[in-house]
Amino acid sequence: MGEREPMLKVGIIGATGYTGEELVKILAGHKKVKITVLQAVVEKEAPISEIFPHLSGKIDLVCKKPDLEEAKKRADVFFLSLPHTVSMAVAPTLLKAGKTVIDLSADYRLDADEYEKWYGTKHKDKANIKEAVYGLPELFKDKIEKAKLIANPGCYPTSVILGVAPLLEKDLIHSDYIICDSKSGITGAGRKPGWNLENPDIKDNFKAYKVNSHQHLPEMEQVLKCFCKKDVHVIFVPHLLPIERGILSTIYMRVKNELGYEEIIKVYKEKYENCPFVRVKSQGKFPQLKEVALTNFFDIGLAVDINRKVVVVVGAIDNLLKGAAGQAVQNMNIMYGFDETEGL
Ligand SMILES: NC(=O)c1ccc[n+]([C@@H]2O[C@H](COP(=O)([O-])OP(=O)(O)OC[C@H]3O[C@@H](n4cnc5c(N)ncnc54)[C@H](OP(=O)(O)O)[C@@H]3O)[C@@H](O)[C@H]2O)c1
Fold first, then answer.
1. Is the CB–ligand 1 distance for residue 49 below 6 Å?
2. For the whole model, what pTM was predicted?
3. What's the CATH fold of domain 8-152+324-335?
């Protein structure tokens, strides 16, 4: 009998939040890893299967209060499902101990100046921002393979950047006029008391918020700039949908030449040819949230108005999976040479 391959030991810090819960669910069923650390700000330490009864029979590890010294003894890879500012207080200790860190917060996604401007707080770990790799596998796989610190992308940016980058890279659209009209379910804001579908601000309602002032705007512009080497201007209007999960972004871009549907769809098909989690829709078909919910897929469909030289791209994801936990596991799979789809 052959020797059993040792399992990679993984920890989740912030395990009781929305994205932490999704990570536990995915990693408990992952063939190559073993969850050895679960931590969160819990009143009482308890098995995770008591906190989330749907996990019972799958994992009964105790979710402990935050203790980094203990954590770093027990795992090799850490997922930080933490609020921004908390991650940058945790990551340096883990990195210094030689651990791999996949951070789901915004703490390592932006240049320090932009971070401080948009998040309104000083960055306390500037040195590691330079080490961080933006974890969007469809666009930065080569860098992800070698990374020790992943800045896992924001949910809105994932839905927008994957829809814009292929055309920008080929210099087919104007980079100074990209309109993104995005809609998100309520889990995008994290788990907080009273924030549910019965809340009168949410129930039977639909509204725009943080118009052109959402903190994900600079992330989109900074990452998209890598594809055209000049400033990119995005007009970003997020909306809150009265549903639990999912993001649908409708993106309007001005095309430089009189390109038709066939030429434009070809660009996307070629770009995402070897990407197991991108599904390019056929002509006349557009993504729906129901088709991506509970999956790690990014679905994309488009239409072209040749006379007005406008392309409309619609992209959809599950914000907790491709927009967060699923993408984080996809990144880990790439970093450790596992099948990119393992667990997903
Ligand atoms: N929700 C999304 O769709 C989404 C998508 C992409 C990225 N993100 C980002 O991912 C991160 C987590 O998001 P989320 O939606 O999962 O948030 P969440 O539901 O608010 O969960 C945050 C988690 O962090 C824990 N926590 C808070 N302070 C802590 C500390 N000092 N030490 C250890 N644990 C601490 C919380 O514990 P308690 O609950 O016990 O306080 C909870 O388990 C955020 O930075 C968010 O911006 C979220």
1. no
2. 0.97
3. Rossmann fold (3.40.50)
